[in-house]
Amino acid sequence: MAPLGDGDAAAAASPNLVVSFGEMLIDFVPDVAGLSLAESGGFVKAPGGAPANVACAISKLGGSSAFVGKFGDDEFGHMLVDILKKNGVNAEGCLFDEHARTALAFVTLKSNGEREFMFYRNPSADMLLTEAELNVDLIRRAKIFHYGSISLITEPCRSAHVAAMRAAKAAGILCSYDPNVRLPLWPSEEAARAGILSIWKEADFIKVSDDEVAFLTQGDANDEKNVLSLWFDGLKLLIVTDGEKGCRYFTKDFKGSVSGFSVNTVDTTGAGDAFVGSLLVHVAKDDSIFHNEEKLREALKFSNACGAICTTQKGAIPALPTTAAALELISKAGN
Description:
Blueprint: H1 6-13, E1 17-21, E2 25-30, E3 43-48, H2 50-60, E4 64-72, H3 75-86, E5 90-97, E6 104-109, E7 115-120, H4 136-140, E8 144-147, H5 157-170, E9 174-177, H6 189-197, E10 205-209, H7 210-217, H8 224-228, E11 237-241, E12 246-250, E13 255-259, H9 271-285, H10 293-310, H11 323-333
Helix pairs in contact: 2-9, 9-10, 10-11
């Protein structure tokens, strides 16, 4: 194994380590918003993949993070792992596959900053991670194990995901789930719904967007009955993000909402990951947040600010905020 870089050593020693599991890829984002992929004249190359974005968000906010996943042994794969390391993320759990390529996604930016995806993964290296290749020691050092649902779509990665999650649970590590629904990657809507819900009750903390609530429940996301149909005994915190409106939170003992921040949105890519990364930094430092509504609301206000800032620039990782930037937005808004 290559020697640890500075980021690896720091993260390895941290008692508040968050390990993110899943995919990292290259997003090709059009240089002009509002055009279809066919109409776009040029694309900006941006690192992406929700679990990797979360790892970078945590590190940028002064937390401790590591990433577990597989990359193609190609220029893009090595570039992505270098980006993780430059962002202070422990890359001990990163592997290269010489027979598969790093995943690519072409992203259509609508004029309001929302996006659509076209993926090149047939199969990509991230889908080929096996259970035997997992760095279980790294996972067991975590305070929180974070994952999405894209790693559940195909074998062997699905079995690796489930094994990693079970190892984390057996070690008493908090499990954090952000499904990050990407329908084009699943065989069908039904398969996506079933796959995402298949591990639902393993999590301690779940974050879903309002669109994902609508998809998973096949009902109105604003109707609290539908949101609460996603609750189960043993869940510590359920968060629903409502875009620029902010977020709603649900625990066993209390529920409420925290308003968001109005900013000039350019690209919503990574906003949810910036939000999750921020919240996980807070939880890793002090998990009494699940039982203390005042602390939770403060953390959510900060996380809303992080999500908002991330939408003001193209790409996810380059747009992730610092603590100072988030605090500045909060003080400007006078919240």
